[in-house]
Design brief:
486 residues, globular, single chain, 49% strand
Length: 486
């Protein structure tokens, strides 16, 4: 939902790190400084790495039960240089530019432009920059706090009694019904879990490697402009009577309106819901300390990734908000088996992360991700395509969040087509997590989980096409995207 790219991929940072070892480094590819040999790409991966400048990308077609059909595209331009480049063996690319556009049937729209340059100018520095525009008429809001883990409950429009809904589809089918008010108008709860969201994001990130590339220090700045509107009192674009007739209806108060009125937002020091098209400004600095021994960041076969990241917004930075947010995460990758002349492999990948946000004046949308410093552009919580994939996006939110993702990434076939290199694979996975009102409340009770199965297409190694299906107690969901979720 929020900040799908703040300091985008700020933890992907390890790409070009390798050892200058006289036994393994050719003199014609002498590095300008020492990089640990553990950061070198596996020899089998190097054999198929594409030289020069090339473009990858695909049109995208999606369906969302809230937003309808969506169309768009991602295009990536890579500058890899040649095998004679001293960094060729240790970076996924020397420069990458990513352009994205997507629009849904309901009017949800996203534009993004991202730039990434490891070891820019053959230095120990990496540069990233992002520009994103995001509008969503049906952004999801399912409540904030530990109570968001409770089952879905609502007034049954047919019986008038409070009912527990086991499936999210049944819950939403009930909300769409309109009832006749005393004033003769129809009213509906179709938008009960929706808000209108508008967002503009601009950020820049710098990163310096140490310890031969295994340790990295990152810092950056983000300017975020957000505005939100409640549907309370507005016309609902979709409402039906109990007998199935479509009617013009007015939206009842939404969950945002109710929780604000009940003091839930005051209890968590939340603000930023403008209920207008007026933008609020979040001016934020961020930093991260990272230890990374992965061999190839877009698709690792070995290594670990440890990170502490911190974001800070305050009035002295020009921000309308004042808060801190941190995340601790660890990732582990290990190839269990290789076959077909070592071209195919089965790799275990695991992620565990914990995050917390606190402060006297928190922009509520900051609770939608653990940290923007996370790889692949942030870990959106808790639910959706990059966390617990069997649940709706932002289904579970609270100041303290824990997430675990486990995957078995099997690459079983590779081929060349039109001078492009592809590999095919499948990825069974298991996601779980939980939320709490404060860190002192953390425990192993009431975790939500969802298993699933995904397909993967690696295109010239640096582009990973991802198709996932996950099943939870509330229903199943399909996702299509680019890149592993971690």
């Amino acid at each position: 939902m929020k900040k799908v790219t703040f300091i985008t991929y700020a933890v992907m940072i390890g790409a070009g790190l390798f050892a200058q070892n006289p036994d393994t480094t050719e003199t014609s590819k002498q590095l300008p400084f020492f990089i640990d040999h553990s950061k070198r790409m596996p020899e089998l991966e190097l054999d198929d790495k594409k030289e020069g400048t090339f473009v990858t990308g695909l049109p995208r077609f999606e369906f969302d039960p809230i937003r309808g059909f969506g169309v768009g595209a991602n295009a990536f331009i890579f500058w890899n240089k040649t095998k004679d480049d001293p960094f060729f063996d240790y970076t996924p690319y020397r420069h990458r530019l990513n352009a994205e556009f997507f629009i849904f049937q309901n009017g949800r729209i996203r534009y993004a432009l991202n730039y990434d340059a490891p070891y820019i100018f053959n230095s120990k520095w990496r540069l990233r920059a992002d520009v994103v525009r995001w509008e969503d008429p049906n952004a999801q809001y399912w409540g904030i706090g530990r109570s968001s883990l409770n089952p879905l409950k609502f007034n049954d429009k047919r019986t008038g009694e409070i009912r527990t809904f086991n499936k999210v589809k049944d819950y939403e089918d009930n909300l769409v019904f309109a009832t006749l008010g005393n004033d003769g108008a129809y009213y509906t709860d179709f938008h009960f879990n929706h808000i209108e969201q508008r967002e503009q994001l601009y950020n820049v990130l710098g990163e310096r490697v140490m310890m031969g590339g295994k340790l990295r220090l990152m810092f950056g700045y983000e300017a975020l402009f957000t505005s939100f509107t409640s549907y309370n009192g507005l016309k609902a674009e979709e409402a039906f009577t109990l007998d199935g007739a479509k009617v013009d209806a007015i939206s009842n108060p939404t969950l945002v309106d109710l929780q604000k009125a009940e003091g839930v937002w005051d209890r968590f020091n939340l603000s930023g819901f403008t209920n207008s098209d007026q933008y609020q400004f979040t001016s934020m600095i961020a930093g991260a300390l990272i230890y990374d021994t992965r061999d190839f960041e877009p698709d690792p076969s070995q290594g670990i990734f440890l990170q502490y990241s911190h974001e800070y917004a305050a009035p002295w930075l020009g921000s309308n908000f004042n808060f801190n947010k941190f995340m601790i995460q660890g990732q582990f990758f290990h190839t269990l088996k290789r076959w077909r002349n070592d071209k195919s492999r089965l790799t275990f990948a695991g992620l565990a992360a914990v995050g917390h946000i606190f402060g006297p004046n928190i922009n509520f949308i900051e609770m939608w991700d653990l940290s923007s410093q996370a790889e692949a552009g942030g870990i959106l919580v808790l639910g959706g395509g990059r966390s617990v994939r069997g649940y709706r996006e932002a289904r579970f939110l609270a100041p303290t969040v824990a997430l675990v993702n486990l995957e078995l990434r099997a690459k079983f076939y590779d081929f060349r087509l039109l001078r492009q290199y592809f590999t095919l694979g499948i990825t069974p996975f298991y996601d779980c997590g939980s939320v709490w009102d404060q860190p002192a409340d953390m425990n192993f009770r009431r975790w939500v989980s969802a298993p699933g199965l995904g397909g993967r297409i690696n295109w010239n190694q640096s582009t990973v096409v991802r198709l996932d299906y996950a099943q939870s107690r509330e229903g199943g969901q399909f996702f299509f995207g680019f890149g592993h979720i971690f």
